[in-house]
Amino acid sequence: MPFYQTRGTIPKKRHTIFKNPNGGIYFEELVSREGFSYVYTNLYHLNMPTQVKELGEFKSCSEKYKYKKNDHKPYHFLSNKSNHTLLYNKDVEISRLYLELKSVKSDLNGNIFRRNGDSDMLVYIQSGNGIIKTNYGNMQFVEGDYIVIPRGVIYQFELKTKHVSGLTICSKSPIETPAKYRNRVGQLLEHSPFCERDIKTPVLKNPVDKKGKFNILVKFREGTKSFVYNNHPFDVIGWDGFYFPWILNINDFEPITGSIHQPPPVHQTFQSKGFVICSFVSRLFDYHPDAIPAPYPHSNVDSDEVIFYSKGNFVSRSGISLGSITYHPMGLPHGPQPGKYEDSIGKKSTDELAVMVDTFNPLYVLSDTESNIDKDYPYSWLKK
Ligand SMILES: [Fe+2]
């Protein structure tokens, strides 16, 4: 994130002796991007953060990628409670999120933590709330939150509801605010649909000084490996820098509206390499007397489009429910379902809430999703 934050206690100068009250010293850890040439944060630990005592086997999940479909058609994935990966390409992987209180509790009680080794993650919360605990501090999350967890951050979820559902987007490149909304020093511009004030950052808790077995499951390439550490990973007494997890709520995205239909880039909320993420939020419709608020049929010939329907009534779609996901691959014209285009004329506002991922390389559909799709969706633009 292009703004500076500081938490807890840090020494006056970087890389110098930082005495603890017991006559010893605290241990500095530098977390840096792009080979120590881009954003970084210095964390200060009670104990050396490098003390691995056990290595687990690498558990591959490459099997799931074998069953990709070589097909070309629009999809409607029906809403369901799972953590299934639906779509992926070399840049991004898009999965459903469904966390249950029981399994999250067993992670917390069993000292199981998670870290993404080679991907940045964005979790969108459709329903439920709780706390994400990290080595940078804790953040409360609620419905509509986009939780950005950059690689290397160690985290655990704690739920305040029986379950949490949403969407997980794993990216091979950083997920950032759109460059078009930032000035030369990285501040979000006056015309940006959100600003730094809308961004929640971690609240550092008292450091945990415990020795034992702390199992960090590291996601890397097409699998996971367990690293059992000697010290509790949340033993940080302070940190400062530009690199940390953060949260933006979709309802803090101030929509850009116009006299006629505004194109998808006005909804852009995040950028990465190979894809963008957009937010469709409650907003007033176009005010030209002859405006058609629903989108025109369109062919976005260089992008695959994935939409997750989170809340409200979506102006252009019929036959979808909350938690539905549609996928419109590049090269296929699509648009409002029959009647939706005409029905939107004269409408003044929408209460829709949806998240869109537009990718610049084609996505693969994993074939185990086939049992949970609306098979008639490719024909849904035919008038009955
Ligand atoms: Fe579209």
Structural write-up:
The protein has a 9-stranded antiparallel sheet with strand order 5-28-7-8-15-10-13-20-16. Strands 4-18-17-9-14-11-12 form a 7-stranded mixed sheet. A 6-stranded antiparallel sheet has the order 6-25-24-27-22-21, with no helix packed on it. With 384 residues, the protein is mainly beta. The chain folds into 2 domains: 5-70 and 91-249, Sandwich (Jelly Rolls); 253-379, Jelly Rolls, CATH 2.60.120. A hairpin with a 3-residue loop joins strand 21 (268-271) and strand 22. The protein contains 3 helices and 28 strands. It binds fe (ii) ion.
In short:
By secondary structure, this protein is mainly beta.
CATH topology of the largest domain, by name, is: Jelly Rolls
Q: How is the biggest beta sheet arranged?
A: 9 strands, antiparallel
Bound molecules: fe (ii) ion
What's the total helix number? 3
How many separate domains? 2
The total of beta strands comes to: 28
Rounded to the nearest angstrom, the distance between the terminal CA atoms is: 49 Å
Mean pLDDT value? 95
Q: Uncertain segments of ≥5 residues (pLDDT<50)? A: none
Shape: globular
What is the level 1 CATH name of the largest domain? Mainly Beta
The radius of gyration computed from the alpha-carbon positions, rounded to a whole number of angstroms, is 22 Å
